[in-house]
């Protein structure tokens, strides 16, 4: 769902003066560079990888998707700032999704750089290593609980059967637990646990520089997916909103997001995101009042999706599945707040107004 003032596809980043996904190593601050790397996706065209220079080498925030074109461009951009793969000492990975983690773990283990990842991502990584033993994609049961059995069938039919490459999903060298500090040369970078988008998501704050490496937690033009994790998390939207409030208690900083342009204020964007989700919660409650006991997919059909407020059935099948799971996360938070109830049913969890 898009909530920012300018669509991601048209957003200009102030560090480059160009479209945020334009090729280059764009200087964000002294010793900090933003390198957009391509993604093989229709919706998101690039991920921002950040390079932080220290006296003993480079720390990279996220690594990109382990595809040849992204690796070649990262190599080229590092050389343009007088560095190379051999200068990388550490990857601080915001979360386990493949566009953030896979290049970090592949390249990190090749060059001997430490790879750090939040410990609450461990169940997801373990699941990736056991997927060959599963009868079906772990997302399909989650879709069914959202009342989206038909979408689950379409997801299963569209699966090409290719199994995850263990090299792309190697375990990190360091599990990050709790909030802690990393030192990159003279810099102090605070690792702040921000679960919600995934259970082990971290943002990294350089408070002296006034910048937040925000991963997918605080995005300037879109909202991150919520509820699209396996194993399923408990109260993902509640965790996400609590994590937003946690970032709001830090000093106001520039946002260095994983997707989209550099943005001026964490305070402004966090407030927008919290307001957005409170509005969605209200709309979900209105749907329950109008329809009676229903599944999350039924409620999702009452909501608008994307910046253009598309109807649910206008979305592609993958987006419909994500919308169903995100709506379920909103309904679960209404249950936690005492405004709704939930009952397991063969057709999926059924929600109703309390």
Automatic annotation (TrEMBL):
InterPro entries xrefs: Metallo-B-lactamas, RibonucZ/Hydroxyglut_hydro, Sec-metab_biosynth-thioest, WH-like_DNA-bd_sf
SUPFAM superfamilies reported in the protein's UniProt record: Metallo-hydrolase/oxidoreductase
Metallo-beta-lactamase domain: residues covered: 46-259
Coiled coil: none
UniProt-recorded name of the protein: MBL fold metallo-hydrolase
